[in-house]
Design goal:
The complex is a heterodimer of chains A (246) and B (52). Chain A has 246 residues and is an all-alpha fold. Chain A has seven helices and no strands. Chain B starts with 8 loop residues before the first helix and ends with a helix. Classes of the chains: A mainly alpha (246), B mainly alpha (52).
Chain lengths: 246, 52
C-alpha cells in the first residue's frame, strides 16, 4: 500500500471531491443504523431485572460517551499531523470535529445525570469518571473558543493543537478513570472484548448498531464540516487579498 | 406499540428527547452553515473573476 497516496487528501480540492463522494454514503448509513438501532433498543428490548426500563438509556449514553473520547483522539491525530507536516486540512478537520465531540460529551453527561438520579439517587457526584468527563467538556468549549478568538488561522491551529495535546490527558483519563481510581459510583466499561464482562446479548446487539450509528454520524458530520471549514478559509484568503488590492 | 417503561418513563423519555434534539440541532446547524458558506464562496469567486 502506497502511504504517499494518503497525503493527497491534504490537498483541499482533492479532500472536497472525496468528501462530496463519500458524504451521501456515510449520511445514509448513519440514518439507517442510528434510527434502526434506537428503535430496536427502545421498542424491542426488555427491561433489565435490576435497572428496569432505564437500561434503554444505554443506547444513547454509551455510544455518545465513546464518541466524546474518540472525537478528541481524532482531533489529537489531526493536530499532530498539523504540528509535524503543516497540512491545513488536518487542522481544519480537528476544528470541524470539536463541536460534534462537544455535543457527544454533552449527551453523555445529560443522559448520565438522568440515568444516575433513579439508580444512584443523585444527578451528579464528583466521581472520577464523571468529573473527568466534565473537564473534557470544558476542554471542548475552550478549544472551540480558542479557534474563534484568534484571527490568524495558522496561529489558531498552532495554539489549539497544543491545547488538544493537553486535553488528551483528560480524554484518556475519562476512559480509564474507573480503572485508575477504582472508586466512585460509575461502574466499569459496558463494552469489553471479554464476553463475561459485556452486557447481555439482548442489549448488546442493538447497542452495537447504535454505536455504528454514532460513528457514521460523526464521520458524516466531520466530512461535511471540514469541507465547510476549507471553503471558509478560502473565502477569508480571497477577502484578505481583495482588501490588500483595494 | 409503546413499551411499558414503568416508574422510569420520565427518565427514559427525557433522555431520548434531549439527545435526539441535540443531534438534530448539530446536524441542522452543520447543513445550514455548509450551504451558506458554499453559496458565499461561489458569489465571491465569481465577483473576483469578473473583476479580473
Amino acid at each position: 500500500m502506497n502511504l504517499n497516496a494518503f497525503w493527497e487528501y491534504a490537498n483541499p480540492k482533492k479532500f472536497i471531491q472525496t468528501a462530496d463522494r463519500l458524504l451521501p454514503w456515510f449520511a445514509g448509513l448513519a440514518a439507517v443504523t442510528l434510527v434502526g438501532g434506537l428503535i430496536w433498543g427502545f421498542f424491542f428490548t426488555p427491561a433489565d431485572y435490576r435497572q428496569g426500563s432505564t437500561v434503554k438509556i444505554i443506547y444513547l449514553h454509551v455510544p455518545s460517551a465513546l464518541m466524546a473520547i474518540n472525537a478528541w483522539l481524532m482531533m489529537l491525530v489531526t493536530s499532530l499531523i498539523w504540528i509535524v507536516r503543516r497540512h491545513h486540512v488536518s487542522a481544519l478537520a480537528a476544528r470541524a470535529a470539536a463541536p460534534v465531540g462537544m455535543v457527544m460529551t454533552l449527551i453523555a453527561l445529560v443522559t448520565g445525570a438522568i440515568w444516575g438520579q433513579p439508580m444512584w439517587g443523585t444527578w451528579w457526584a464528583w466521581d472520577p469518571r464523571l468529573t473527568s468527563f466534565l473537564i473534557l467538556f470544558l476542554f471542548y468549549l475552550g478549544y472551540i473558543a480558542l479557534w474563534e478568538a484568534i484571527e490568524n488561522d495558522d496561529t489558531a491551529a498552532d495554539l489549539t493543537s497544543i491545547l488538544c495535546l493537553v486535553g488528551s490527558v483528560f480524554a484518556l483519563l475519562s476512559r480509564y478513570a474507573v480503572n485508575f481510581w477504582n472508586q466512585g459510583l460509575h461502574q466499569g466499561a459496558s463494552l469489553s472484548l471479554d464476553k463475561e464482562e459485556n452486557v447481555a446479548d439482548v442489549f448488546w446487539y442493538p447497542l452495537l448498531v447504535c454505536i455504528a450509528g454514532f460513528v457514521f454520524l460523526f464521520i458524516a458530520l466531520v466530512l461535511m464540516r471540514t469541507r465547510t471549514e476549507i471553503r471558509a478559509r478560502r473565502m477569508r484568503a480571497l477577502l484578505t487579498r481583495e482588501r490588500m488590492e483595494a | 406499540m409503546m413499551p411499558d417503561l414503568g416508574k422510569y418513563a420520565d427518565a427514559v423519555l427525557s433522555s431520548y428527547a434531549v439527545s435526539i434534539l441535540m443531534i438534530v440541532v448539530v446536524v441542522l446547524l452543520s447543513v445550514r452553515r455548509s450551504n451558506r458558506v458554499k453559496r458565499e464562496l461561489q458569489e465571491l469567486e465569481s465577483k473576483v473573476k469578473s473583476n479580473g
